Write the structure tokens for this entry.
Amino acid sequence: MFRIDLRPALMLVGAVALGSCAGERSTPAASVISGHDNPLLAEWHTPFGVPPFDLIRNEYYLPAFREAMARHKAEIAAIVDQADAATFANTLEALERSGAVYTRVSAVFNSVNAAHTNDSLQEVDRILAPEQAAHADDISLNPVLYQRVKAVYDQRDALGLTPEQLRLLEETHKQFVRRGAALDDAAKARMREINAELAERSQAFGKNVLAETNAWELHVTDTADLGNLSDNLVALAAREARTRGHDADWSFTVQRPSIDPFLEASPNRELRRQIFLAYAMRGDNDNESDNKANLSRMAALRAERARLLGYPTHAAFVLSNNMAETPERVLGLLDQVWAPALRVARQERADMQEMMNAEGIAGKLEGWDWRYYTEKVRQARYDLDPTLVRPYFEVNAVRDGVFMLANRLYGLTFEPRPDLPRWHPDQQAFEVKEADGSHLGVLYLDFFARASKRGGAWMNSLRRQSSLDSAVTPVVTTNFNFAAPAGDGPALITFDDALTLAHECGHALHGLLSNVTYESLSGTAVARDFVEFGSQIMENWMSEPEVLRLYAKHHETGAVIPDALIEKLQASGTFNQGFITVEYVAAAYLDMAWHSLPRSVEHAARQFEQAEMDRIGLIPEIIPRYRSTYYSHIFDGGYSAGYYAYLWAEVLDKDAFQAFKEAGDLFDPATARRLRESILSKGNTRPGMDMYREFRGREPAIDALLEARGLTGR
Ligand SMILES: [Zn+2]
């Protein structure tokens, strides 16, 4: 259910967060950089001004980045050095216009490096990372620049600003303050020390997880131990064995795509135990890759930094910038879901214990038995054969189903544009048009897994919508890792893949429907716990029988998916949700515990984690989705005090979808218009809760989520 999304490219380097990135205006920005041979720095003579991927060579990136950063620096210097007193126009809007070339080069590079990388691009990335970090710091810690922003901020009520201008001012000021711009020199110096140590420790954390993950293998020599593993997965395990130097047989690793199918399929309980424990103990083996001391120190440093910035805890610091606002509201959500989820998980455990004992295996069900018996119960109860489902989900038919949703809801149409430059022949390009035929933006889709693409699925923007000096239309990409078709055959995907396709297109619509003035407030540039709303809500339509009948058609016969299959898909939808919810919420509690330390004190990681799991009453057959020592989201990613965000957004998307059901029409025009006008077109120009309240007429309620996950009282 939880998918990885790359945040809009520049969110990663901090420039947009500072409101300092103007858009790629197809004409004015280009005119000042013409005369270069580097197409990244030249004007783009392409339809809609999309990037000329066909002309960009690997060696163009590094010089383009350095030139773009130099220009950005000069633009910042011009703002700082001007003699006039700070105004909204000469400081905030000037910041907004600065860095246009840097934004453009970064967007292209980050997109291509994620979707179609090579050694050369990865080397550019490695060389640039410290230069980009320093570039972002030079801007955010520039004292004169901050004083100018503050001067405007301090007189904000007297300036007659529009609501969007006021929001830009508040958000920009806030980002400076959150990065330490308002601290005295001693505190600033300590901030820099803390940030440097955190960056180093975070990098070491990731390196340790990778080492522990790659080091371990389970070498299986008896074909009986493979159980009913699919031919494709058996072939992958055979290849893994050869990669690891074996002449024959099969090897499994503790990477999810390898361990999960093995735990589901292998009847060998002892082998399941070995691989399960190897997975769960990563970073906790008291060896040179142990992460316990490392992460404890990180939590302590974050607590210290939060206090420097005036917050009681790191969680309070992070959440003050999110829709949830406070740790209390996050814990309130987790508490509401936890008790019913745990009750359902206990029932699931009882069902599986019964099945295991009925098979003649004595004793107690353990963590390494859970996935194996889950699959047995699933088959016994739902008789859902995946091979019967796939013919109804051909990837282009599913895509057209999502386009149909966007048409029924917002009147959009999608015109294929095979003439647009692409980074890979598999990539598809569409012009997106409004109901009246006018141009809205460009959408790329890149469906299939390949060695040059990172894992997961994500959306990102090549150009974000804005209208400060002229109308800039959005160009967005969606990226997936679906199995490529064999030869010229059809690309049949799973029902879960179909939900992923709708999810990423939901992010894309959030970017495409944006209608704001300032680029840094545009589209998906919203709080982390709000951004998944626009994507997750699209998934709701995909599993409605009425909608399935519109798009799920047999790829050979064109026959509509039979009702019996729809019923099975729906019935199995809430299956195993106790387990799925419990392992997720336990990890979210663990994240909150590490980041609610009131003082900068290092705790023994194993004991700290166990105490929190005991406090919430986690049953021993389930471990948190991530244990502390390999919790990369929070110790080597951007999700500290933020792992709850998917569930938060799910409360919103399930509750919002109810608005359509209450209207008696899944495509109710008035509700769809409200969704577009109150939320999807507004980017970050208003607080998320304000936008939601305007759409729904009230705050979100949790009932629809509990219902969808099968967690209501029984
Ligand atoms: Zn997403």
About this structure: Residues 3, 5, 503, 507, 532, 535 surround zinc ion (CB under 6 Å). The chain is about 55% helix and 5% strand. The beta strands are 218-220, 250-252, 413-416, 428-433, 439-448, 458-463, 475-482.
